[in-house]
Amino acid sequence: MRFVIGEYGAGKSFFLTLVRLVALEKKFVTVHADLGPDRRLHSSGGQARALYSEAVRNMATRAKPEGGALASVLERFVADLIKDAGERSVPVRKVLEERLAHLQEGVGGYDFATVVEAYWRGGEDGNDDLKTNSLRWLRGEFSTKTEARQALGVRNILGDHGCYEGLKLMAALARLAGYGGLLVVLDEMVNLYKLQSKQARDQNYEQVLSILNDVLQGNTTGIGFVFGGTPEFLTDTRRGLFSYAALESRLSENSFARDGLVDMSGPVLRLASLTPEELLVLLGNVRRVFAGGDPDKYPVPDEALQAFMVHCNERVGEAYFRTPRNTVKAFCQLLNVLEQNPGTEWQALVGSVQVAPDLPEAEDADAPDDGAGSAGDSGGSGAGDVELASFKL
Predict the structure, then answer these.
(1) Has this prediction a pTM greater than 0.90?
(2) Could you report the per-residue pLDDT of 314-347, keeping only the tens digit for each?
(3) Could you tell me if 195 and 80 are in contact, meaning their C-beta atoms sit under 8 angstroms apart?
(4) How far apart are CA 134 and CA 111, in angstroms?
């Protein structure tokens, strides 16, 4: 389990995408999703199930990196069953029951195994409706138990309180299908920090703690978690993860890792900032992409890159290379104008390019609470976070 921590625009989402691509190359199954107002780790109003559904819909394998690979994983699992049954000269159902016996040991495992068996049975009988309903159940798309019982004969669904268990079962299924395991990538964890209700935040942090304890104590197999968040989400002692004492003690960084020393074995990974030299190389690579790799078609010369960086330093300050998102975006806009307006001089444009520093989103976009109001959070619904508007004696 790793927490990838970086400022807004520092490249967290890009880093998480890179991690997923590496995992796919190593024959892992990956699922990913972004947290938001309607998606979180724990809830009572369907937000946790929505997060699980979004993640499983984005399931990817090396053969299907664009997502939607759940059916492919199940088909590979069924193909292995048929192959094993043929080699051993035993019925396919016997091999299926042997492999699913392990799944039934976990919480919710019996229903999970029943649905996987239903998918195999649908393929044997040519019942596409049964296969479709099995995929819907595994993606958490059934909203009521009655509907699931009528369609598949199971009494439970993957709801708000069973999403983590569902991910563990999905990891076990991935291993049974011949993959290395399951990597869960969740970005925009700062949305938990933005929750106005202290009770809602603590419930989500308890879910994080549960996952962390399982990983550290070896209670899970074949599953990994990578979370992306801002420094405030991690270290804020009033609303961040460090506001939960049990998480603070587990996520505190190595006190010996200072003065340029790093420790990559801990659960927290802080993204290193780009240096000005690295940003110059990055801008040069962007220019090369615009030219299709042909140096003769570069839209701007080398001195334009340095002039652009000097301009950014004057407009934004020294932080322009630490969170390069807006800097690179502005540079691309500059190249777009030069490309679409032949004859335009880059010197005349550089001074007029507006580069804004990366700032967090407005607090008024906070997610709604889980019906818990603002219990335990000082000042009611966000009142403790509002600047002093006026004062009168």
Answers:
(1) no
(2) 876 666 666 688 888 889 998 999 889 888 888 8
(3) no
(4) 11
Q: Which conformational region is residue 153 in: left (phi greater than 0), alpha (psi within -120 to 50 degrees), or beta?
A: left
How many CB atoms neighbour CB 41 within 10 A? 24
Q: Do 229 and 41 form a contact (C-beta atoms < 8 A)?
A: no
Spatial distance between the Cα atoms of 105 and 109, rounded to a whole number of angstroms: 6
Note every long-range contact of 309-313, with CB atoms under 8 Å and residues 24 or more positions apart, other chains counting. 309/276, 309/279, 309/280, 309/283, 311/350, 311/351, 311/353, 311/355, 312/355
In DSSP terms, which residues pair with 31 in a beta bridge?
184
pLDDT digit string, tens, across residues 271-316: 887 888 888 999 999 999 999 999 888 989 999 998 888 888 887 6
C-alpha to C-alpha distances, 200 to 14, 39, 207, 213, 374, nearest whole angstrom? 29, 13, 11, 20, 9
In DSSP terms, 182 is beta-bridged to 29, 223
Cβ atoms 114, 154 nearer than 8 A:
yes
Cα-trace Rg, the chain: 25
Total number of residues shown for the chain: 393
C-alpha span between 31 and 54 (Å, rounded)? 9
Angle at 145 between CA 140 and CA 147, to 5 degrees: 85
